[in-house]
Amino acid sequence: MNALVLGPDGPALRDIPQPSGEGEAQIRLRLGGICATDLELCKGYMGFQGVLGHEFVGVVEAAPAPEWVGQRVVGEINCPCGTCDTCRAGRPTHCPTRTVLGISGRDGAFSERFTLPVGNLHRVPEEVPDEVAVFVEPLAAALRILEQVQVQPTDLVVVFGAGRLGQLCARVLALTKARVHAVDRNRDRLALLPPEVIRGRPEERADLTVDCTGSPEGLSLAASLTRPRGTVVLKTTAHDIAPVPTAPWVIEELTVVGSRCGPFEPALRLLASGAVDPRPLISACRPLGEGVDALEMAANPAHLKVLLEP
């Protein structure tokens, strides 16, 4: 079967055997989404080699629990052991021996079929089309901010970077009724934001800043525009990041929060209700057989979300 595989010489389309994850659900891909992490993996992040892809919507073709067969699903990407001290303490996404779909120790979703534990799966409501459901994973990551930081309607919030993830973070944060600004050099990206998000940096320093740039310049700017004892949330991972002076963070007593994977069910509810509509972010949909070209397209700042279909 066709798969987009990252090897020592970079990504390539390859014919690989059918997956045989014992005790797991076998899923047929319907739609996959390329994100910044996929692009960073191609640069050497995590040292990953294997099938790329962790944003997907698919259909279960086989499963140890028969009620899942035929269901249209999305899936959480972290596969913990479930038995270690970290898992038992309620932190399974930080399990030290976890595998991560298409990122660490586990082939990803950019193939005709792949596997995941049934416990990772979430059914997609009928009213949510594939091109919306494929955004569940990154939207959940945006929602993780609200699990970590209490945002008040009176707060001033600034999102730096209006790319794939920044767009979703701005939309989620705007639901809190806080004053949300988005900062990006690309005016076309800013134009995609809903009207409740203010374009451009505010005159005063913010209570909360969210860095979605993946660059040291963006992080430094976010920290510099955060008020004393305010909070900076880091939402992006990158292979190469230059050192950033942290002395101002100490002087200003900033709280710095790393933020990664988030809750799927609230993300599905937002998409089903239409409270968040990610479809304006789709730049293109390409066949899986053109996956290498699709990665190059996604790396172009002129494009946001590039989707893959089998």
Overview of the molecule:
Helices cover 25% and strands 30% of the residues. It contains ten helices and 19 strands. The mean pLDDT is 95. The protein folds into two domains: 2-135 and 278-309, Quinone Oxidoreductase, Chain A, domain 1 (Alpha-Beta Complex); 141-258, NAD(P)-binding Rossmann-like Domain (Rossmann fold, 3-Layer(aba) Sandwich). The strands form four sheets. Strands 3, 5, 6, 10, 11, 18 and 19 form a seven-stranded mixed β-sheet that branches. Strands 14-13-12-15-16-17 form a six-stranded parallel β-sheet, sandwiched between helices. Strands 2-1-4 form a three-stranded antiparallel β-sheet, with no helix packed on it. The chain is globular. By secondary structure, it is an alpha/beta fold.
SSE map:
Layout: E1 2-7, E2 10-15, E3 25-34, H1 36-42, E4 50-51, E5 55-62, E6 72-75, E7 78-79, H2 85-88, E8 99-101, E9 105-106, E10 113-116, E11 121-123, H3 130-133, H4 136-148, E12 156-160, H5 164-174, E13 179-183, H6 187-191, E14 198-199, E15 206-211, H7 216-224, E16 226-234, H8 247-252, E17 255-258, H9 264-273, E18 282-287, H10 291-299, E19 305-309
Parallel strand pairs: 8-9, 12-13, 12-15, 13-14, 15-16, 16-17, 18-19
Antiparallel strand pairs: 1-2, 1-4, 3-5, 3-10, 3-19, 5-6, 6-11, 7-8
Helix pairs in contact: 4-5, 4-9
